[in-house]
Amino acid sequence: MPMYITLLNWTAQGLQNVKQSPSRFDALRKGFQGVGVTVRDFYMLTGQYDMILMCEAPDDTTLARAILSAAAQGYVKTETCRAFTEQEYRQIIGGLS
Q1: What contacts 16, CB < 8 A, 6 or more positions away?
Q2: Which of 46, 53, 93, 95 has CB 3.0 to 4.6 Å from 6, enough for a Cys bridge?
Q3: How many angstroms separate the CA atoms of 67 and 64, rounded?
Q4: CA–CA separation, 32 vs 63, rounded Å?
Q5: pLDDT tens digits for 14-71?
Q6: What topology does CATH give the domain 3-94?
Q7: Domain extent listing, the chain
Q8: Torsion angle, alpha carbons of 43, 46, 50, 56, to 10
């Protein structure tokens, strides 16, 4: 399944309610599982981004819907990238002419 990396930042609303963030994350994980998205890793960060989420999803559309549903609650802003495994990377590079 494709892997995705989502970089997250709390919004002002998210920071005002930061103590509830762990329970919101639990609900996010459960909601993602319900639509076929698996949360593989989560980290709180220092620096430009507040958190990073690594997920597997069957396709881009499924992942986009899950992320948009989470962001629509107003607690976070997101930036998502498709991540390629080493094997996928080697196939991509191997296919160059």
Answers
A1: none
A2: 53
A3: 5
A4: 9
A5: 999 999 999 999 999 999 999 999 999 999 999 999 999 999 999 999 999 999 999 9
A6: Alpha-Beta Plaits (3.30.70)
A7: 3-94
A8: -30
pLDDT at 89 over 90: yes
Q: What pLDDT score was predicted for residue 97?
A: 85
H or E element, residue 55: strand 51-56
Amino acid sitting at position 9: N
Half-sphere exposure in the Cβ direction for 22 (13 Å, CA): 1
Q: Which two tokens stand for residue 44?
A: 């709180």
Of 70, 75, 76, give the one whose Cα is nearest residue 55: 70
Rg (CA), the chain: 15
